[in-house]
Amino acid sequence: MARTTESSVTAASVPAARPLPGHAHAEAWPAAPARAVAMTTRRWTVAVLLSLLPLAGCAASDASPDSSPSTTTSSSPQTPSPSPLTSDAPTAEDEAAEAATTVVNEMLRVTDAAKQDPGARDWEPEIRRFSGDPAALLAVTAVRDYATIGLRQEGDTVVELEVTDVDLAAPGGPTVRITGCYDSQSTRVVRVETGEVVPPGTPSRYVWDITVTRYEAEPGSPWLVNQLDPLTDRAC
C-alpha cells in the first residue's frame, strides 16, 4: 500500500467549499475596482476643496472696511458748573463816600472861580449849592472880603482828599468825615491894583478837616460841605 503525506495532496483533490444551508452566497468585491473607487473619491474631494478656495477669497476681498460695524460713542453735553457769583455793587457807605468827595471838589471849583473874580456877581447862591453853614457862610464872607479889599486869587486849589469815617446813622443826618492835605503853593493872593503878591503866612502844606452831611429834609436830600477848617498847625 502506497504511503501518502499531506504535501502530496494537490489542490485539485480538495473539494470545493459549499455554502452552508440557509445562507445566501456572498460575492467577493474585486480588489482592483475597490482601489479605483477610493482614488476617485479622494480626487473628487480635493477638486471640490480647490474649487471652494477662490470663492472664499472673493468673499474676503469683497468685504470693505466700511462694512465692519462702527462703534458710536455718544456723550451728553457737559454743563459747566456755575461759578460763584461775586457782587461788585458798591455799598451804601461807598456811595456816601463818593458823593461826599464829589461835593467837596465841586465846592472848591466854585470858590476858586469866585475868588479869582470876586466882584463879578453875587456868588452866594452858587456856593450854597454845594455847602451848608457854617462852611457856606465862611466861604461867602471870604469872597466878599476879597471884593472889598481888592484882592483876587491866582491858580486853582490843590488838595488831596481821604475819607476817614462814614456814619449813615448820625443824629444830624448821614455824615462823612474827610481829611484834606492842602498845597498852599497851588494858589496865591494878589492885589488887584498893583499885582503885589500877599504872603500866605501859612505852611506850604497843611491839613483841612472837612465834614460833609446829607440834608435829608431839603429837596433832593443833597450832600453839602458844612465844615471846612484849615488846621495850619498840622503839616501834611
From TrEMBL:
Residues 59-99 are annotated as: Disordered. It comes from the Bacteria. Residues 59-90 have a biased composition (Low complexity). This is Uncharacterized protein. It comes from Blastococcus saxobsidens. The lineage of its organism: Bacteria, Bacillati, Actinomycetota, Actinomycetes, Geodermatophilales.
